[in-house]
Amino acid sequence: MKRIDVSSIGFGEACDEGFEQLFPFLDDDESNVMAPIQFASLELVRSALQIAEICSKDKICDIGCGDGRFAIVSFCEYGVQQSIGIEIDSDLATLAKEKVKRAKELLSGDKERNSDKLIIVEGNFFELDEKQQALVEESTLFIVYLLKDKMHLLESFLRKQLEKGARFISILFPFLDWKPIKKSDDEKVLVYSKDSIPKSNCKST
Predict the structure, then answer these.
(1) Helix, strand, coil: what percent of the chain each, to 5?
(2) How many CA atoms lie less than 13 Å away from 34 in the CB half-sphere?
(3) What's CA 117's distance to the chain center, in Å?
(4) Measured in whole angstroms, how far is the alpha carbon of residue 92 from the centre of its chain?
């Protein structure tokens, strides 16, 4: 399967520095902000997917996808079966859909790809409809790029998915007290699997 480089799509400015330095005021537990509007560089996106050992059999779900770069890169450059980006902010969701449209134009000559499997969903991750939820639950690799004090909101969902064999990538921030199975040298990318869940939190069998 041909790898399609998406650099020409024109993703906006990115910053791979810690949000604590950039946005210290967002560490407030009472804030409704799940994640500041700040994008990972394409270099970090590709590195994260490689560290997670992404493969063509994977199905990706990016929770809070911003402009859709994780979803697009994983689908176009790594040939995953399905890639879904979920974004609650309407402006960002519109931007992501525009980027996806351009990505599909790049894929138009590749008969091996079903571009309908590259999807952006505008909405609240916790309020998806039945069809959208079913697509999410099929995913084998999740992307999480959230503030530390918001991680707990995904704990129950991610534990369930990991116990089914999925894994997830957290960008910049460690996920609660879970132990990553892999991480980048600079610890900006952390990969989690079923083995990451503290034993006391695992369901008994």
Answers:
(1) 40, 15, 45
(2) 17
(3) 15
(4) 15
CATH assignment of the domain containing 78: 3.40.50.150
The C-alpha atoms of residue 82 and residue 39 are separated, in whole angstroms, by 22
pLDDT by residue (tens digit) across 30-75?
Answer: 455 566 567 889 999 999 999 999 999 999 999 999 999 999 999 9
Where are the alpha helices (H) located in 55-126, listed in sequence order?
Answer: 69-78, 90-107
Q: Does residue 64 fall inside a structural domain?
A: yes
Sign of CA dihedral 35, 43, 118, 93: positive
The whole-number average pLDDT for the span 160-172 is 95
Query: In whole angstroms, what is the distance from residue 158 CA to residue 193 CA?
Result: 9
Looking at the domain assignment, is residue 73 inside a domain? yes
Question: pTM of the predicted model, to two decimals?
Answer: 0.86
Residue with tokens 């994983």: 74
- pLDDT (tens digit, 9 = 90+) per residue, 106-136? 998 777 789 999 999 999 999 999 999 999 9
* Distance (Å, whole) CA 21 – CA 27: 11
Helical ranges in the chain per DSSP H = 19-22, 42-51, 69-78, 90-107, 130-137, 155-163
- State which residues form the domain around 99: 41-196
Whole-angstrom distance, CA of residue 75 vs CA of residue 101: 13
